[in-house]
Amino acid sequence: MAGAASSVCVSRQPAGVARVMTSLHLARRKETDARDIGFAFFRAQRQVLAHPYRSVMSGYAVSGFFSGPEMLEDPAHAAALLAQLKAFYDARLLCDVTIRVLGGGPEEPGGGVSDSGRSFSCNRNVLSAACPYFKSMFTGGLYESKQQQVTLHDMDPESMALIIDYCYTGRVTVTEANVQRLYAAADMLQLEYVRQACAGYLARRLDLHNCASILRFADAFDHPELRSRSLAYMARHFEQLAVGEELCELNLAQLKEVLAMDNLDVSSERVVCNAALRWLEANPKERASGCLEVLRCVRWQHFTDKDQVYLEGLKAKSFLRKHCSQYLDAVLQDKDGKLAISTLSCQEGSPLRRIGMLAKEMVIFFGHRKEPFLCYDPYSGDIYTMPSPLTTFAHGKAVTSSAVCVSPENDLYLATQPMKQLWVYSPVQNSWQLLAERLLCREGMDVAYLNGYVYIVGGRDPSTGAKIREVECYSVQRNQWTLVAPLPHSFYSFELVTVNDHLYAVSNKRMLCYDPACNQWLNCASLKRCDFQEACVFNEEIYCICDIPVVKVYNPARGEWRRVCPIPTEGNTNNYQIVRHGSKLLLITCTTVQWKKNRVTVHEYDVTNDRWVNIGTMLGLLHYDCGFICLSARVYPSCLEPGQSFITEEDDVRSESSTDWMDGFSELDSESDSLSSFSEDDWPRVSARHRIYVEGSF
């Protein structure tokens, strides 16, 4: 009975307690089961990853993968929340702090307290979430965290308004008028995005007039990237800077750094010496102490006996004679009466020549995407290779062709087809930089540079084949694309050139002229030929190779066409390129001698006698794609790689077996099965200044 009583006693717990105990017991069982299932699921996933082809989840139903609560996310929530917070800010609703900004603008010299301050009613949580400075202020237990009003001194009110607007919207407005003050405010408030946005804005707007001041600005705020961009710009345009007053703004350390750079694009060391003298003479009293330091940055080793008169003239300058005559004596003459300058440089050993002293105008061959580009001097026979951004697409079909153009500053731009990429070549780094993505996919287009803008014109839609009339325009300064006035007529096999601040689209049937000043296309006198091969601008006229060997020239000022001497022709010639090379007009033709071995011939146009003259190129046979296109640009051979591996002597070819031709066709078949699968309509057409590759053609 006692046992029974005890049992009864235990079973007679209060109903509420029993329910609680039962619930706890069930919860523990569910937790254990869930944990076991979770471990089993995790082990199964690991086994699936280790053995992807083994079915290790066969013991679980498919529904197990989709069990549990559903996690849903509103994609519009974040944007709607920001918009509503901005609406509250504009209406001054739910604001819990006032930011008072005093001084710092240009209207208040010295940044002192003035009556021109502004107050901003804000939300602490928004400012803290968006700005590290305010997060520390409002959440770090500082005195300001409990104040209804916080005063900021030495801050530009207009910049603060932009920053608060950024905190609520994620957008910031940068202009030439506010960029430096906005950068300073963002730097103080630790807003990295705004700081970098301002630095990028300044870097994209570097020019001859502001590059020195931007360098000083970058040094003041310790921004290495902006500083590097400023120095690179100054190096490339040093020849123009040396005759201006901008370099005189630099301090001694900055000037020495500029003068010591290897990548100064100068034709001779005299340019560097003149820039140093101009800086010294701009403030002789204060800069006299740095005279010797500045002159030591000049690489006197690269002066020759031809510069003796120039060097003698330096000693005649009273400023130099007063402060560094002994140094100049050592530069001018040793005991043998010769230039004794081997020990006078600020660098040890024999300093390198400046990169600009070795620069030269070269014809650039743009060939198959599997190969680098070739840089060739038709008068000396020098040949180098330039890397291609297309090699990453060499084994796919995403990029089938490219279009290229060159700016007056010798910037190379390459647009891929049909993808929407645009690249620009950096000559000092010898590399290509990817720019903002284009707006449209096209093939059969052409590209041209005009006054700081890159234009994409013509072509077809790669998906539908429809001809595209929309014209894309890229701003080099803003790194942005937009659409401008469309073409009144479509273009496919054509050439896009620039003459006298206008674009000209030329084909065998029509010619259009685009005026950027009024964003309008106008009809011009058409070529009216059966065929169109190539065109380029020479002496402000458009030279066109149409029905071979016919050459016609268009004069935009008179609006008239005329015929000139026809081009020389040769059997088996399959490529005609006409290129402006400095002050000369060149005709470059390609004749296939053997598979992948092409004889390249260069003729120069004699304007006076209206004839084409073979310049006797020393190129030999080019082991390169025969469908190359050509442009001429100023490059730095010292930054390029040798290209002799692409040259084969003709004597070597004659000794080879003719079976190489069949080997070449076998290689072609191995890449693309058979060319018989192409119908006549499937063969792509080659348009001027762009090359379309058939898969397996190289």
UniProtKB/TrEMBL annotation:
The alphabetical list of record keywords is: Kelch repeat, Repeat
Q: Which SMART domains match?
A: BACK, BTB, Kelch
Region entry Disordered: which residue ranges? 650-681
Q: What InterPro entries does its record include? A: BACK, BTB-kelch_protein, BTB/POZ_dom, KBTBD6_7_BTB_POZ, Kelch-typ_b-propeller, Kelch_1, SKP1/BTB/POZ_sf
Note the SUPFAM superfamilies from the entry: Kelch motif (SSF117281), POZ domain (SSF54695)
For this protein, the record's PANTHER family field holds: KELCH PROTEIN, KELCH REPEAT AND BTB DOMAIN-CONTAINING PROTEIN 7
- Record-given protein name: BTB domain-containing protein
Native species = Leptobrachium leishanense (Leishan spiny toad)
